[in-house]
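Reopening closed ticket. The problem is back. First fold of the pair:
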Amino acid sequence: MRRRLATLLALAFLAAACSALAGDIPKPLKSRFVTGDPVWREIPVRDDNRSDFNRCWQTAVATILENGFDIATMDKDSGYIRTTWNEGVVALGGPWSYRVQLSLKFVFLPMDPKLPPGTAPVIDKVRIQAAGEISQSFRGVIKQFFRGYDQVLLQNVFQDLQGKIGIR
C-alpha cells in the first residue's frame, strides 16, 4: 500500500513538474506546441491513387515545398522524405528560438511475388510528422529546451496532403 502511494505521489509530482515546465513555453507556441515525442499521423491513400506511386510522390514533394520547407533527405525507393529545420514557422525573437522539421513516409502493401520485377509498389498510407524544438539561450548557453511537435503545422500539412491523395 505504501509503495503504491509512493508511486502515485511520484507520478503526481512528475505531472506537476511537466506542467510547470510547459508553463515556460513562449506564449505564441502554447496553443500549437506539444512537448514529448513527436507523433505520426496517417493518411489512408484513395484507391485511385494507390497504384500511382510516382504521382503521389510528386504530390507529396510539391506539398512540402508549398508549405515553405526545403528537402534535406529524399529516398524515393524507400518512400521517405525529411525536410531541413525551418525556423520561420513562428518567429519568437529575444532569447527564444523555434524550429520545425517535417518527415514523411510512404507505407506500401506487401508486393505480390508473382509480379514482374520493377512493378510499382501499391501504397497503403502516408505517415507524416512535424517534430519541433524550442530553446531559450543566454549568452550562448541554452537555459531551456523543449522537444515535441507542432500540432497546428501537422494538421495543416496533413489536411493539405489528404485532400490531394487521401480518402475524403
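Second fold of the pair, where the issue appears:
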Amino acid sequence: MRALLRQTYMGALCLPWRLAGSVGLNSGRQLPVQFVIENADWAIRWVGEHIRDEVNLLQPGMVQTTMQPNRVSNRVVHFGSQYMWLAWGHLMSRNNRYVTSFFHGKPEDGADVARHVDGFLASLPRLSMVVTAAGLIEDRLLRWGVPREKLVRIPIGVDTRAFAPPKLEQRQSVRMRFGIPDGMVVVGSFQKDGMGWGDGLDPKLIKGPDIYVETMRAMKAAGIPVMAFLTGPARGYVKEGLERAGIPFVHTFVRDHLDLVGCYHTLDLYVVSSREEGGPMGLVESMACAVPVVSTRVGMAPDLIIDGVTGGLVEDFTGDALAKKAWQLLSLAPHDLSRLKQAAESAVKAADWSEVGRSHWELVYQRLLKL
C-alpha cells in the first residue's frame, strides 16, 4: 500500500509536465541536458556534478543537475542510477530522451535485485542510451540483451589534479593529525557498507565489509602492524569487527568530497573487498594518489589493474586472498613499489573527469541532441 501511494504521489508530481510535453511545451529555462542526482551527498551526486561541470566547460550552458525529474519535458534526461530511472521514468513525459547509468547489479545478488533487473530490461524500449563504467558490467548488459547501439562504457572519473600523490611533509602532517603512530600500515576502506543511514550494524554484504574485516585479521595474524582508516556512513559492522580483532582504526566523515584527498594521503594500501561494484570511486582515487590497491575482480578493477603492475587483483572473494596479495605489494622493494605506483597513476589518467566529461558529451548528449 505504501509503495502504491508513493507511486500515485510521484505520478501526480509528473502530470503537469507530462501534459505540457504532450503538446510540445518545454521546461522553460532548463538546460538541454538534465542530470538527475540523489539528495544524499555521496557518489551518485558527485558523479553527476563532475559530469555537469566538465561538459559545461566544453559546451557552456548544456548540462544542469536536478533532484526534481518530475519537472522536465522535451529534454535529454540522464538518471545517475537505474534505480532512480525505474522509480521516475515511466511517470514522466514521453517527449524526453532518456539515459540511465547502470553501474552494478545482477540477479544473483538477491530477489530484490533480480526483480529490479527484470524491470530495467523491460524498460529498455523507453531508453535512448545506457551508460556503464566497467567492462565486466558492459559484457553482462550485452548478454542480457541491451542493444549494442544503446550501450556505452565510460569510466567513473577522478580529478587527477586534486587527487594526487602527497609530498613527504604532507603525508607526515596528515598522519599526525589523525593520530596515526609511526610504523603502522594504514589500510583504507572509503565506502558505505551498512544497511540504511544509521550506525550500519547490519552489513550490506555486497560491499564486502565482512571480507574487509577478514583481510585485516589475516594481515594482523601475518605480523603486519595494520590500522584501518574508514570514511563514510554506516560503518558500524566493520568497526565492531575491528574492535573484536584488536585492530585500531580511524573513522572520519568528510564535509566535502575533496576532503578525502587528505584521507588517502594517510594510506599505505587501499582494499576493495566488494562482491559487486560499478567503480568504485575509491579505486580510481587511490590510484591517482599513488596508494597501492588490492581488489577483488569487480567493477573497473580488471580494466585498470594489471596484477603486479598497477596494483593487486584477486580471484577469490576471501580475506586470505586479499591479505596475501597485500603482503606481496607491501613486500616490494622500494624502487619496484615506486614503479607500480607510477604505473597506476598513468593508467588512471584515462579516467580523469575531463576525459569522462568529454566522452559523455561526444558519445551520449551530442548524439541525442541531434535527434
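Update: turned out to be a display glitch only; the data is intact. The longest helix spans residues 2-22. Residues 98 and 126 are 7 Å apart (CA to CA). Please close again.
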